Amino acid sequence: MSTFEAHNLFSVRGKVALVTGGSRGIALKVYISSRTAHECEETAKELNALGPGTCIALPADLQKYEEIGSVEALAVPDHETYAYSASKAALHHLSRHLGGRLGWEGVVSNTIACGFFESKMTAHTLATSGDPLLASTPAQRFGKPEDVAGTALFLASPAASWINGATITLDGGLLLSGAQLRREAMNRMSKL
């Protein structure tokens, strides 16, 4: 049996993963956590019905720990999100620190830095400024739950066993589009 076969590279059999923000539909064999206990339990119930494996809900308010990475921490934003950007940069560094400390025990720690995804948090921004944001994203779409789920599955699989302390940018190329294009998009957005 070759270790290069897809089912060997991406199997999460025997792995334990904690996916924060998990009540929004990230579907892996994992423990999931979110602030809303009811939604977390409902998502776990749905995932368990799909099988195979087990999904365990761990409702917890991790918001104060800023558990989800963001592209806001990877470049200097051209808008005033000072505390948010700094807290996300701190999270990315914490993940690297944990990777260095826990790597000796076989535990890896990585961060997914998300760009724009449709969510409760981004609903207003996308409703009022979605077109310019979309225009500044080379992939010409916003992120989907499957994008995060696929990235999380990859990071939890043997295919990523040599990755530790990394921040994976998941933004459809937004950061690659350049500051000038982003500024132009933000200017168009401010005139709406």
Automatic annotation (TrEMBL):
Domain of life: Eukaryota
Keywords carried by this UniProt record: NADP, Oxidoreductase
UniProt xrefs under Pfam families: adh_short_C2
Alphabetized PROSITE patterns for the sequence: ADH_SHORT (PS00061)
Single annotated GO MF: oxidoreductase activity
Entry keyword NADP: yes
Entry keyword annotation includes Oxidoreductase: yes
Family stated for the protein in its record: Belongs to the short-chain dehydrogenases/reductases (SDR) family.
Protein name in UniProt: NAD(P)-binding protein
